[in-house]
Structure formats: structure tokens, C-alpha cells
């Protein structure tokens, strides 16, 4: 990716510019910061200490998933805590690392409430918040909220329009199809700590890539096929335009092998020793991957040991 591309207006001074850098690759961690391969529910033991450690070691971001309800058939309840409440907690416990949602399920949430919560965390963290949004991946949750799963793509676009309006305008006038009307007599405060709050798509959100490129500041998808990744990134970059840098990243289940020379193993996630991973990630950086969010959920190895090894041997090669 050319380093001549520039960030969208209002993001150059924000934490977004530290997490997503043209021509660079940064690493984040998906919460909870522990492995629980034999259970659907983490212990959340030492989660604050591990978040602080990740901050001290130089990881770029902590990503919090939005899983409102436990579905035992799905097999994972994520970090248990509500992502916005948890984001505020982690922001208070850390100093530099970005805090992001991955991502808020907009069809199940009131968009004004999401905007209020996001801007509050952004202010309280002094601009370290990134709002990731999605449509979720669990159809079983939708009936509990009285929301139609079949129109989630349209509701997502509608909710996103409300969020951007109340975040970026004062006393806005806006008519929503699903969420209400703003007549210009009310204003949402606070506003963003910097010029505006960065927003990224997490997953496809039921949208075309061209729509995501037009409306979002970046895109984090799931681990992609190695052979297809360059084509996907090229499609994304073309949709964004040659002058604007809008990053592409991915999230993946991850286990760092204790043997630094262990080969990479693909499957339900990414496993391997650090040397093979370094080669892979250098190649993916050159292909245009800007950020990788590592989910230790499948790891049998201590997360503390894993992040320390990554910090000692991997992060310095990319930072």
C-alpha cells in the first residue's frame, strides 16, 4: 500500500492513526485475554492486569465483542461484560492502547444510545476509542429483541446514518426509517474528543464492499484464504480510491506455539511458531494488511506468556 495515501478528514490526529498506518502492520488483542478451548465461558481472571500488560508491551488495540446473550449452541460468550461498560473500565486501567468494539450489533441497539456511549468512552479515554459496528453473527438473538433478522442489512444502514448524524452535527435534522426523528431542537453531547470519532466495519455487515468503502473509515474482516487475500485487499483499496487510506485488517483465533520454529497450521484459526508467523505477517503487510486482531480463545498456552513473546520478538519488527 502506498504511504502517499492520506487518512480521511478528522482522523490524522486520533488514535486511529496509531492503530492503522499506511504500509505498516499493527497487532491488537480480542478480549477476553485468555484461552478457554474447552468451555464457552471465560473465567475473566486477571483480565485487567492482562490488559495493562498489553498496553505496556506496545500492542495497538484491545477489541471488545458484542454478545448480548449466551447461546450454548454457538460456543462462545466473549468477554461476558457489556462492551461499552467494559471499554470504559479498560480505558481507565490503561494509558495508550486503543479501545475498540468489534463490533456493536447495530440492528439490536438503539443508535442514539450507541452514539452517546461511544462518545462518552471517547471523551473519558481522551480519544482512544474506535467504534466498530456489525450486524452480528447469531440469528438466535434477534427474536429476543423483537427485531426481524431478515431486514438487518437495512436496519444497519439506517442505524449507522443516525449515529453519524448525531455524532457529527449539532442540533441535527434527520428522519430515520426505523429509529425515530430529529427535528433540530435537540443535540447529543458530548461530541468526539478529536475532530470526529473513527468508525470501522467489523465483518461485511450485510453490505457491499463499495458501501463499506464509502461510509466506513476501515474494515476488519475474518481470517481470509491466503491465496485470495491479495485480491480481496485490491478490491477494497480500489473501492476506497487511490488517494484515501482506509485500512483493511482481520481477526483470527490464535495460538502461539511454544516452539519458535513450529510451522503454521490453518483451520479454526491460526497456529504456529513465531518465526513462521513473522514470515507470514511480513508478506501480509506487504499485501496491504494493516492490523491483525488476535483472539486467544482457542489457546492452551498462557496468554501472558504468548503476548510477552510477541512483544519481545514480533512487535519490534513491525512497529
UniProtKB/TrEMBL annotation:
Keywords: Flavoprotein, FMN, Monooxygenase, Oxidoreductase. It comes from the Bacteria. Residues 27-238 form the Luciferase-like domain. InterPro entries: Diverse_substr_monoxygenases, Luciferase-like_dom, Luciferase-like_sf, Luciferase-type_oxidoreductase. NCBIfam families: lucif_BA3436 (TIGR03571). This is LLM class oxidoreductase. It comes from Phytopseudomonas seleniipraecipitans. The lineage of its organism: Bacteria, Pseudomonadati, Pseudomonadota, Gammaproteobacteria, Pseudomonadales.
Amino acid at each position: 500500500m502506498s504511504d502517499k495515501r492520506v487518512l480521511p478528514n478528522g482522523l490524522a490526529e486520533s488514535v486511529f492513526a496509531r492503530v492503522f498506518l499506511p504500509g505498516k502492520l499493527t497487532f491488537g488483542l480480542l478480549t477476553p485475554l485468555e484461552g478457554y478451548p474447552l468451555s464457552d465461558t471465560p473465567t475473566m481472571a486477571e483480565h485487567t492486569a492482562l490488559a495493562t500488560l498489553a498496553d505496556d508491551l506496545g500492542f495497538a488495540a484491545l477489541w471488545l465483542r458484542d454478545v448480548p446473550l449466551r447461546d450454548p449452541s454457538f460456543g462462545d460468550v466473549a468477554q461476558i461484560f457489556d462492551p461499552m461498560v467494559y471499554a470504559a473500565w479498560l480505558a481507565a486501567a490503561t494509558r495508550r492502547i486503543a479501545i475498540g468494539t468489534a463490533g456493536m450489533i447495530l440492528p439490536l441497539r438503539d443508535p442514539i444510545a450507541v452514539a452517546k456511549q461511544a462518545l462518552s468512552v471517547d471523551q473519558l479515554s481522551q480519544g482512544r476509542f474506535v467504534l466498530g459496528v456489525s450486524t452480528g453473527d447469531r440469528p438466535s438473538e434477534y427474536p429476543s429483541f423483537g427485531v426481524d433478522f431478515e431486514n438487518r442489512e437495512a436496519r444497519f444502514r439506517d442505524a449507522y446514518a443516525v449515529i453519524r448524524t448525531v455524532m457529527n452535527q449539532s442540533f441535527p435534522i434527520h428522519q430515520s426509517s426505523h429509529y425515530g426523528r430529529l427535528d433540530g431542537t435537540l443535540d447529543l453531547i458530548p461530541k468526539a474528543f478529536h475532530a470526529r470519532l473513527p468508525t470501522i466495519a467489523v465483518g461485511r455487515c450485510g453490505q457491499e464492499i463499495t458501501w463499506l468503502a464509502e461510509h466506513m473509515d476501515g474494515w476488519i474482516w475474518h481470517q481470509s484464504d491466503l491465496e485470495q487475500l491479495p485480491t480481496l485487499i485490491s478490491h477494497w483499496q480500489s473501492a476506497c480510491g487511490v488517494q484515501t487510506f482506509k485500512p483493511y485488517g482481520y481477526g483470527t483465533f490464535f495460538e502461539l506455539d511454544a516452539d519458535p520454529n513450529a510451522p503454521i497450521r490453518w483451520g479454526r484459526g491460526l497456529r504456529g511458531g513465531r518465526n513462521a508467523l513473522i514470515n507470514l505477517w511480513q508478506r501480509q503487510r506487504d499485501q496491504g494488511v494493516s492490523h491483525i486482531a488476535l483472539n486467544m480463545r482457542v489457546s492452551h498456552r498462557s496468554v501472558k506468556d504468548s503476548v510477552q513473546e510477541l512483544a519481545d520478538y514480533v512487535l519490534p519488527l513491525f512497529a
